[in-house]
Amino acid sequence: MLYRSTRGNCSNVSSAEAIKRGLAADGGLFVPEKIIHFDKDQILKMSEMTYQERALNILEGYLDDYTLGELTDCVNQAYTAQKFETEAIAPLHKLYDSVSVLELWHGPTSAFKDMALQILPHFLVKALKKTGEKEEIVILVATSGDTGKAALEGFKDVEGTKIIVFFPSEGVSQVQRMQMVTQEGGNVCSIAVEGNFDDAQNGVKRIFGDEAVAALLHENGYKFSSANSINWGRLVPQIVYYFSAYADMLRNKEIEIGEKINFVVPTGNFGNILAAYYAMQMGLPVNKLICASNDNNVLTDFINSGVYDRNREFKKTLSPSMDILISSNLERLLYLITDGNSEAVSGWMGKLKNDGVYSVDQETKKKIQSVFWAGSSNDSDTLKTIESVYAETGYVLDTHTAVAVDVYDKYVISTSDVTKAVIVSTASPFKFNESVVKAIAGEEAVAGKTEFELLSVLSEKSGLAIPAPLKELDRKPVLHKEICRPMDMAEKVKQVLKV
User: Fold this and answer.
1) What is the widest separation between alpha-carbon atoms in the chain?
2) What is the residue-wise DSSP string for 3-43?
3) What ranges do the domains of the chain cover?
C-alpha cells in the first residue's frame, strides 16, 4: 500500500515513510492509494474479537510494509488493560434504548487522543528502522489541550525522538495545562503560546514550511515530523474504534449484521469524524455521520453551505479542545469526496491560506451533505445537556460529549431519524470538572474552588473514581515554564534543540 499527497505534487511513499514524515513535501496530507474493504462476514467475525484483534485486522491492510509481528507488538504495547483501566479499551455504555456512548477516554491522559497516541510512537520507532533513518526525529505539536499531553506521554523517552508541544496560553483548562507543564521525560518540552490554538497551529505549520530551519536541523542531525492528526499514523488507529463499537453492538445483540447506525462526533480538527468516514467507506454500515461543533462552528457552516470561512471571531468555550477555526483534516475529506482531485484540493487550500475562505462546487457540497449532518451547541445548551442527562440517567458527560448529545437531539428533532446512534465521547468528565460540577450541582458547588479541588467534589457527587492520571496532578512540580509569541516559535525550537 502506497500513500500519495492530497495535493498531488510529490511521489508516492510507503506507510512507514508517510508516518515518519507526517506531512507531505508539497504541504498536502498523505492518503492511502486505495481503501481496504470489509464484507459483512468479516465485520460479524469482529464481534467475537478483542479490541487488540480488531485493531490488527484494520491496521494490517493499511500498514502492509510492517510485518504482522511488528504490528502485533505495536498493538499489544499500546492497548493494555493497565494503561486503559479496562479490558474493553473503548467500552460502550448504553445511555437510552437507541443511544449508546463510546467511551474513548480510559487511557493514561483521560482523553480520546490516547487511542492513537499510545500506538503512534511504536509505529514511528519501527518506521525509523525500516526506512534507515539516521537523523533524530523532532515531533512538533500544536494542541488545543488534549493532543499535547497525550503526545508528550506517548513519546516520553522514546528512542530516536524529541517532542516539542505548543499550547495556547489562555486556551486550555487548568487540568490540561498542568498535565503538560508537569510532564516528565528527557526528550520532552511544552511551551505556552500567546494567542489561541490557531496561532499555535499556524506557527507549527510555518516552522514545517521553513526551508532554512529544516536545513539547520539537518546540519545538526535532526528532522521534523508531526504527531498531530495530520499524521496518517494518528488517523488509522481511530478507524478501529468505529468498527469496534459496531462489533460490540452486534455482540450485545442490539443490532443485526448489516443494520446501519449513526455516529455523532464532537469535532474540531475533523480527524475523529474523518476516521468514521473512512470506516464507512470500508464497508461499515453507517447511515449518517453527525458533525457536532461548539460556538466555533466553522464546520457546521461549511457542511450546510459549502463555504469554509475562518474569517470570524474566535470564541473561547467550555469545550476548548474544539476551539478551532482551521480544521486541517478536512483536506483529506475533500480529496476523497472529489475522487482524488488534487488540483481542486490545492486550489481550495490556497484560497484558505491566502483569503481565509473558499467555496466548493455544488456537486461536492451535495456529496458531503449526503453523508454528513452538522449542528452546533453553545455553552448554555452544553451545561443544560450535562444537567439533564445526569438527572435522567445518572450518567456524567464531559463538555465535549455534551455538545455531541445536544447536537444529536437537534438532529432527531430536525430529521425525525431514530436510527440507533453512537455518541463518541472524547474526554473524562473529570478533565473539565468545573463546568460539569456547575451543571450537575449548581454555581455554589464551584464557588472559590480550584479545578483540582473540584475533582473530589465531582467524585463525591457522581460516585465515580477520580482517574489515576489526574489524582495527584496539582502536587507535581512544574517542569516547563516557557511562554512565547507566535512569531518566536521557530526560535524556541532552535533553543530547545540547541542549534
Assistant:
1) 61
2) EEETT--S--EEHHHHHHHSS-TTS--EEESS-----HHHH
3) 75-113+233-430
Cell numbers linked to 361: 462546487
Would residue 449 show up in a list of annotated catalytic residues for this protein? no
Q: What share of the chain is helix, strand, coil (3-state, %, to 5)?
A: 50, 15, 35
Kindly report, residue by residue over 321-347, the tens digit of the pLDDT.
898 899 999 999 999 999 999 999 999
Write the pLDDT tens digit of every residue in 423-459.
Answer: 999 999 999 999 999 999 999 999 999 999 999 999 9
DSSP structure class, residue 393: H
Instruction: Give SS3 for 407.
Output: helix
Q: Which of 20, 113, 365, 438 is catalytic?
A: 113
Q: What is the 3-state secondary structure (H, E, C) of 79-136?
A: CCHHHHCCCCCCCEEEEECCEEEEECCCCCCCECCHHHHCCHHHHHHHHHHHCCCCCE
Residue 289 backbone dihedrals phi, psi, to 5 degrees: -105, 120
Torsion over CA of 98, 103, 104 and 105, rounded to 10 degrees? 160
Sign of CA dihedral 37, 43, 48, 50: positive
Which residues lie closer than 8 Å to 468 by C-beta, 6 or more apart?
Answer: 85
Closest CA to 429 of 408, 461, 458: 458
Residue listed under C-alpha cell 448489516: 258
Strands 307-309 and 357-359: antiparallel
The answer to whether 325 and 298 are in contact (CB under 8 A) is: yes
The CA distance from 282 to 285, in Å, is 9
Phi first, then psi: what are they for 100, rounded to 5°?
-120, 160
Distance CA 216, CA 222 (A): 9
Burial class of residue 69 in the structure, from the number of CB atoms within 10 Å of its CB (0-12 exposed, 13-18 middle, 19+ buried): exposed
Q: What is the pLDDT of residue 228?
A: 79
Residues 293/330, Cβ–Cβ less than 8 Å: no
Cell of 197: 490554538
* pLDDT at residue 212, rounded to an integer: 94
- CB contact set of 4 (below 8 Å; sequence gap of 6+): 12, 30, 31, 33
Specify the CATH number of the domain 75-113+233-430. Answer: 3.40.50.1100
Triad 426, 431, 437: Cα angle to 5°? 110
pTM of the predicted model over 0.85? yes
* Nearest alpha carbon to residue 90 among 104, 74, 76: 104
pLDDT single digits (tens) 251-280: 999 999 999 999 999 998 899 999 999 999
